[in-house]
Each structure stands twice: as C-alpha cells, then as structure tokens.
Amino acid sequence: MYMPTFRIRSAFWTRTVLAATLILCLMASTVQAAAAPVSIPAQAKALTTENVAAFLKQFFSSEEVKAQLAGATVIVVKDGKTVIEEGFGYADKAGKTAVDPDETVFRMASVSKTFTAAAAMQLVEQGKIDLKADFQTYTGPLNFDNPFGTPVTVEQLLTHTTGFRIQDPQPEDINDDFKTKVSIEDYVKQHIPPVVREPGTSYMYDNFASLLLGLVVEKASGEPYEDYMEKHVFAPLNMDKSGFLLEGELKEDLATAYDATGKALDLYTVTPTVMPHGGMLSTADDIGKFMTAFLDGGAAGNNRILAESSVEAMEQYRSSIHPLLPNTTYGFEAPIQLPGAGSSSKIITKAGDLIGFSSYMFLIPEQNTGVFIGYNQQSALRELFYPAFIQEFFPQYAAPAKLDAFQPLSAEALDAFTGYYADLRLKSLVSTVAVNGGALSITDALLGTRQLRQVDDNLFIDELTKKFTAFELDADGQGTYLKEPYLNPYGYEQKGPDGVGYADVTANHAYAAPVMMLQSLGYLPNDAALSFQPEAGITRAEYVRLMLESSGLKGSKTEKLAFPDLQGHPDAAFVQMAVEIGMIQGTAGGEFQPDRVISRQEAAVMIWRLLNAQYPDKLFTNVKLAGNTDKWAIPAVKMAVALGLYGPEIKADAKGKVDFKSRAALSKQENAAILYALFTNPMNQIVAKLMEKS
Fold first, then answer.
1. In degrees, to the nearest 5, what angle opens at C-alpha 58 toward C-alphas 54 and 60?
2. Cross-strand partners of 374
3. Residues 433-456: b if buried by 16+ CB within 10 A, e if exposed
4. Is 137 exposed, middle or buried (CB count within 10 Å of its CB: 0-12, 13-18, 19+)?
5. Is the previous residue joined to 272 through a cis bond, with omega within 30 degrees of 0?
6. What pLDDT, in 10s, does the model give residues 499-538?
7. Which DSSP state fits 230?
8. Its pTM surpasses 0.85
9. pLDDT of 617-654, one tens digit each?
C-alpha cells in the first residue's frame, strides 16, 4: 500500500501515525529531499554497468543517504538485459546480514498494485473482464451505498477514480496474528465503503479499489488470487521468490524492518491474509524480470504475460489535472515531481510503503529502461534516489517544462481559487489558498506560506520549491480541487464550502478564522443561524473527539473501556482510542471525567504526549513562562507556546514571557484556535529555528 509517510499501525506505530497526521511531522525529510534544487548535467551519462555502479557507489556513500539507510536493493534493466543489480547495507543489522538482490525479500507494499493490474489486463485480453463493466458483474452484489446512479467500473478501480469514501487499511490490519486467515471476499464485505463522489469525476489514491480489483481477478478467473498470480504472472517470468503469503523462503529471507530512528520492528502480518493492494513479497531480481518483460511488450523469452496492446494501455495516463501533472495509468502512477519540469508523462512509476519498508519502480518505455529500489527503513530515500538518477542518466526529463502563452488572471479572478482544501484521502492534510497583494499564496503545516506564480491556465509554480500546483474549476469557474506535490502527491485536495460563522461568531470576531475554517472542513456545523457559544468551556471528551476527528482517526472498537465513567458516553470510543495511542491517561481517582471542562494545561499535555518523541523537551527549555502552570504540565505548556498552539488570547510580555493561562478552562473558541494552528503552523520550520538557537 502507499501511504504518505504517516502510514501503518499496531501498538508500536499508532502513536506515530496520529502525531504525524496531526502535525505532518514525518513528511519533513521527504519534502526537504524533494525540494532540493535540480542540477542538470551538460550531457547525460550512458547507462552502462560501469557508470551506474559509480553512481550507486557515490549515492549510497553520501552522508545524507547513510543517515537514512538500513539496507537497500537496486536493479536497473535496459534493452532486455540487466545493467546492474546490487545490495547495500543490511537486511538484518543485528546479524550483519548483507542485502542480496537475488535472495533478500522485501515487502513490495503498493508496488503490488501494478501486478494486480497486470493480472486484470490478462483477463481483459481473454474476454473474462470488461473494463467498462460494473465491477459487481464479477464480484457479485455487494452491500454499499452509491447515490449517484452511476456504477463503479473495473476501469475506475484501475485508475483510482471510483468515488469511494477513503477506506485505507485499519489499525488492526497490521498485526502479529499469524494463525487467523481472512479471505479477500470476507474482508471486502465487512469493510466496503460508500460512494461519496460521482464515479469517474475525481482522482483519489484508493487502496480499497485495488483490493476490489484483486477480488475481481479472483472471481473472473475462478482461481484464488494468490494461485492466479503464481500461475499466470510469477511462474511465466521465473519469479521464484515472489508471492503474497508470508511463509517458507519468503518469510525466512524477509529483511528486518526498521523505523525512522533505525530501531528494529517486530515481524508482522496483514489482513486480509492475501492483500492484492499491498501484500506482495519479492526480490530486486524478480522485479527486474517483470520490468524486462513489460518493456519487451509483455514477452519473456517464449513466454508472454501481456499482449503488446495491454502493455501500451498500461503505459497511457488516463487522467490529469494538467498535462504536466498526470495521475495514473492502468497500474502505474506519475513520477515524483521535479522542480520546473513537473511529472513527465513519458515515465511510469509505482511507489509503495508499509511499516519499515518502501519501494519505487520506475520505467521509461521510450528508453526501454526500468529501475527498482527497495529498502527496509522508513525514510525519504526514493525522493533522493529518483531525481539523482534521472539527472545523471536522463536529464531531458528534468529539463524545465516548455509552456505556451497564457492569459494571466486578475486578482479578482484569483479569488475563485481561494479557500480551504482538504486531501480527499486524509482530511487532516489541509492547504489554505488566499490572495495576498494581488497574488495567490498557499499555506500548509509543512512548508508554511509560499507564493504561487501563474505559469499556465490553472497552473502555478511554487516560488519556494519551483514545483507545480494545479487547480480544477467547476462549471461556474470556481476552484474545486487542487493537486500539489508535498502533503500528498498521490491525490487531490477538495475545496470546502466557505465557512459562514455563527450568530455569535461573525466575520469580525477575533476567532472567526479558526471557527470558519473548521466549518469549511466539516468539523463544525456550517449554519450561520446557530449559536456557537465561543466562550463556553469544552469538555474533556469533546476535546478528544475533535482532536481525533481532525486527525483522521476513528473511535476504538474495543468493548472493554479504560474508565468506568465512559460507559454509555457518546464519545467513549474516541476517548478509548486516545487511551490506546497514549494521548490520555486518566485522573487520580481512576476515572476520565469526560464531561468536566478541560483546562488549558490538560489540553496541552494530551498533545505533548503524542509529539514528545518527535519534539523532545530539550528543544523548548528556553521558552519563558509567566503565570501559574502546574509542574507536571510545564514541558507540555512550553511546547504549546513554542509551536504556537494557541489563539489571540495569548501574548508575550515585554520580557518575552508567555502566560498560557494554564489552569484556566479551555473555551470552544480557544480550542478552535489550537486546531487551526495544528492545520496551518509550519511546525518543523519552527523547530528548526529553535535548534539553530540552541
């Protein structure tokens, strides 16, 4: 599966997921790498074994890469031959086991989707699947809501344009239960989401769509998915160390997974047991066999896995918000965007991420070249590797894009783009678009505020990183979607309606901006006739629910609750989830007191518990506090002050000291300001400046 660096869970990872979703912390290294300036050599180097070996040696010996590396495997193929395959670092650091590109098994994660797509195309060739047909033609009727009267087709499963509500893997889908077997069909029936956008009208990277495609393959072929893949994809290519079941050699030779700090992670399995959208296990050598066959029109010696027409179909991009920013083909996606160049439609790629594993496969059909890198530590390695490789050997794809003349929009016309845009997949990823000084600007919690300079119709270049952001307009000329390269380059963000405020929170209210943002994003009712009671206190349970909802997390399914006074409470599931991720503990009396108004310092401590591992207390030792803060809350309050997690009610005095009003009740308007800050404040930039001063 692909998940933007805040990916998958279990007891050891859920806290990281929330913290990263809440503040986007773990995206920092990715963006810094992706935003590096492009240096295009005067002449491309020939793709020879000697040149690639020299490139890899230099790349993997750099200090920036070594800091992010446990082990990695790379293979490069061209013109039907392997140019090079090498291993770097360790498959297992404790045992000093070196990575072997022939033997070391890596989790392919979402690269699995390309293989599932290839299987579906085989069945299309055989007339067993019609791409334009309702996918339920093959799966049988499934119980889900689709109010649009337009069926979801197999083709839309392939292109991530289903309109399904986001349904990523659940926390419990990554687990250590190696005995329980869950079928694809049973999992689909239990978890299938409703359709919330008209099928075919918007792009959203969709794990569940690829899971459904796997079920289509299973039903249309009459064979279990894993058996079909073995017989019709792996065996013809002699991919003898590939599969979807963690057993035998695949389990024995699986590389150890490491987190971003280099700590070894426990072995885990996935649910469903066979996961078409992310469960494939393979080696670099086997992936090289697939790339070679694909680039040879689907043929591998006397065997053929795809017709040439199917290969051509899988190379063709099917949608885009702008020609320089294509979305997906049948089974592939657009490459990492390069500054000034965009995402070349001449290159097809597939990225994948699971706990402790990442992978990237990219093919350049017109160069008859394919490259794969896999690694076993959470890091931004591929964001460093891909641009460096392209610039070294194929710099023409990194050259600045040639754009036609266009009619620049007036400041008034730019208003059509303004508003709050939430990622279709992860609503906690938010971009704020505004007009400042007659020009468009964009703000997020990752890079802060940047100017957007128009370079084409509905296409803008980020003046900070020189990458493109594009907008889609509706029939009335209003912005509806945007695609940008940082928060989630694998999907669109959707513009919310304008927040209308409340009878007691009008446009000139001190807290109008945060309240109206939460209305626009759907976390508060968007009805001006209602009363918000901005100065009323917010209860502990309400605070937890809003914090988790805005972080994209749902309530816990655990039946045994941590506190007796949660029984029957409407927010009990959210409080229980907060307990499970370490956000809350309780009170001295062993109760949670869900309906007690939360104090400001209690609210700060809940956030601190999530972010402390990412932002240690030593970063905030120089923060000066005024007023009264209980000793147990001082580190949390210092963090909150440093990160700007407050509203206009808090100001520094002449000596730079800040009274957080720690023991006072947290009001609804102040809570809105905290959420607003979490959505918009560039936390990593703030911390970087603190580190410079320390």
1. 115
2. 73, 359
3. bbbeeeebbbbbbbbbebebebeb
4. middle
5. yes
6. 999 999 999 999 999 999 999 999 999 999 999 999 999 9
7. I
8. yes
9. 999 999 999 999 999 999 999 999 999 999 999 999 99
